[in-house]
Amino acid sequence: MADFNANIPEGELTVKWTKLRSSMPLVNPANKRSIEIVVVGSGLAGASAAATLAEMGYKVKCFCFQDSPRRAHSIAAQGGINAAKNYQNDGDSVYRLFYDTIKGGDYRAREANVHRLAEVSTSIIDQCVAQGVPLAREYGGLLDNRSFGGTQVQRTFYAAGQTGQQLLLGAYSALERQIGMGKVEMFTRHEMLDVVVIEGKARGIIARNLITGELERHFGHAVLLGSGGYGNVFYLSTNAMGSNVTAAWKAHKKGAFFGNPCFTQIHPTCIPVSGDHQSKLTLMSESLRNDGRIWVPKKKDDQRKASDIPEDERDYYLERRYPAFGNLVPRDVASRAAKERCDAGYGVGKSKLAVYLDFAANTERYGRIEATKHNIHNPDKATCVRLGLEVIKEKYGNLFDMYAQITGENPYELPMRIYPAVHYTMGGLWVDYNLMTTIPGLYALGEANFSDHGANRLGASALMQGLADGYFVIPYTIGAYLSKELATKPIPLDHPAFVEAEASVRGILERFVNIKGTKSVDFFHKKLGLIMWEKCGMARNAQGLTEAIAEIQQLRKDFWSDVRVPGVINEFNPELEKAGRVADFIELGELMCIDALNRNESCGGHFREEYQTEEGEALRDDENYAYVAAWEFKEGVKFELHKEELKFENIKIAQRSYK
Amino acid sequence: MSTGNMNLTLKVWRQKDNKAKGSLVDYKLSEISPDMSFLEMFDVLNEQLITKGDEPVVFDHDCREGICGSCSMFINGRPHGPKDLVTTCQLHMRSFKDGDTIVVEPWRAAAFPVIKDLTVDRTAFDRIIAAGGFISVNTGNAQDANALPIPKIQADAAFEAAACIGCGACVATCKNASAMLFTSAKISQLALLPQGQPERYRRAQSMVAQMDAEGFGNCTNTGACEAECPKGISLENIARMNRDFYAAKFVSEEEV
């Protein structure tokens, strides 16, 4: 078995990172020049890591499957990025961010990692502002903040509803600067299809040039995966069409353990599915929950228009069930509550699988404030609404436009209809404190790793983690490994391990095009997605999961005998790319169900129907399941469980309450 | 599989690779739902082509929510189709009528060579950014984020310029295939911010030089780029870029 030690530094929680950073072995500048690092992925984690490592003097090769690093899916993050700046003077601190994140993750994350994340969060904002990222400001010229779920302070920095775009373009510009200086070699439209492991260490990758179809071998003293999450295993998700698990999965099959695969985040506020043709789901930012109130009619099957339903016939169920946090409960709690109402028959819209997100009350409230500013005394309702709509437009205009575009309805007049959708995956490659996987020299960053969010991620924390890993963690921790690699000369690309890895990749690609079956790749992907959503989605139970495992195994057989991949391998062939990704999703889907079945408790986004409190809240079993499930891949798509005990030395582990 | 009632004729540009000669090919589609996005309509087409044993149409797309800038179809003579301020992926079939004929071509510009079908090579944009579209601040060099107050109006203006998604619609629509709207958006964003001042003139010069080297045309103030930009990037940015570019000749001490 590979090395499986979390390598958490000794000492007090608050000094672990500082002490480690100060005692970490270094690589001197002259040696850095001869060390090569392969970075796969160019999102927040990959781009920030590639740029920073190049600034430090390493030779970096960066790969992305998109036509430009600027298109990585981090770009689509809307709401914001957390940081413990306490600019609002509302009692925020590193400890509070740490505490909120551990609690939000339902006590299934590693204390030391999360504390480090909270510590470096403030530097991220400094760095991004220095790069010219135009974060929202107040009239005094200082940075503005807003609220996000699961917290009672305002620590979220944002750029309208396009925070991910602006942060990614910041990291992208830092990356392009290094490309322009010749320090990073960029490979766009390249997809990593295997990790090359030599004498137990990651030494490079096999990548496919997506335009020519050619397979390439690339050496690296270390390999970093910033390849994102695997939400597309559900087919329908808020992820981009190309988001995939392939890089992480290939690493898993080469020996990297996969941590907590069943921890998936279902985001409560997405635009509902409109029909069978649907290819993806669109998120409506969590920031909308600042000003939107969520409700359903108190009467089942109420056919009236939302605006015709009087106040006392509406059930503001989040405010009712969770008075302390109200509409700002964490995502897992909000999603489950929506599902509960819809399952009970109170859903709205054609499909009855939706709830209202209503801005009317806050529109009027804003209007009243505006009226006072304009010296309009005793304004009537119409004036308040008119003035309030301008405020709402300024705050959320782009999101409202997007909603109107997709649904054909005007959200300024009608409440939005929303429903939960797959959004993020907390699980990922298992990494130690240094972000190294169980394959020495192979690291995983950002959403690709499992490390910081436990069983549920808080809003605005994904951007924080991606950039923390790339800008401020890996540049230090990688030195510990590379300082011992100074004597390693670049390994020739005709080394048997490279030859063998390339041959095996070629074998798989040829198999795809030679099956010449009758069903498209999407056909299988949709089928997989349906199994996953129904049996390993917002609620799971042992029977459903057992069925799902059998169904997925059958699906895998059908896929490998009946898929039709047109074209050849030596050409630009997106269907072939998809086939590879779906083949990996099918194997991953099975592991997710196995993991969900193994975890006989409910925690965060993992809700096992058998384990709930009388009020329907998640019921954890800390005695038996306070561990990270790290799965090892075995021949024949089998998986072996390893457990990393989670020790809570600084936070008293408790039933999570947002009441 | 689809559930609607629209019947359409598509004329789609098919081109095997960069060297092949392309042509428009006709396809008939039926039962298209008005709730589908334009790209979902293409998914339906491709599913049909694959089932028939034909090669599906290759097109760039990824986020399908209007922010990644991948999608790039020239629809009935307009980049991203008939609606203002939306990308192809956010264009829905309810913007078309039953019985319509829709012509779909790739972006056309010498600096954006066709790779296959509707996919073009836009890496020239990356090289323009690499030439100077950044602030030279290494990780770890930054001061406290609130140490430098920036007036809201200025920050908002910088944000508006920074909203560019790099899709290339501006180039595709311009009769000169000029990349000035794209280039000027980045130059403006950084010129409007105090952090961008130290490299302001050098940046304008090197980015413009790279833009020219890539083979993009010049600007003749037609304004088609602004009209077709899915993110509403303003023509004012070009004026600002030109000012900085010429000012650089006087204030910059270095030859770039």
Low-confidence regions of chain B: none
Helix content of chain B: 25-40%
| Total domain modules of chain B | 2
Oligomer: heterodimer
Structural class of chain B comes to: alpha+beta
| Percent of residues in β-strands of chain A | 5-15%
Sheet with the most strands, sense and barrel status of chain A? 5 strands, parallel
Report the sheet-strand fraction of chain B: 5-15%
Kindly report how far apart the N and C termini of chain A lie: 44 Å
Give the name of the CATH architecture of the largest domain in chain B. Orthogonal Bundle
Mean pLDDT of chain B: 96
Reading off the top of the CATH hierarchy, the class of the largest domain in chain B is best stated as Mainly Alpha
Give the number of DSSP strands of chain B.
7
The name of the CATH superfamily of the largest domain in chain A reads: FAD/NAD(P)-binding domain
Tally of domains of chain A? 3
Q: For the record, what is the CATH homologous superfamily label of the largest domain in chain B?
A: Alpha-helical ferredoxin
GO molecular function, one term (chain B): electron transfer activity
Protein name (chain B): Succinate dehydrogenase / fumarate reductase iron-sulfur subunit
Pfam families (chain B): Fer2_3, Fer4_8
Cofactor (chain B): [3Fe-4S] cluster; [2Fe-2S] cluster
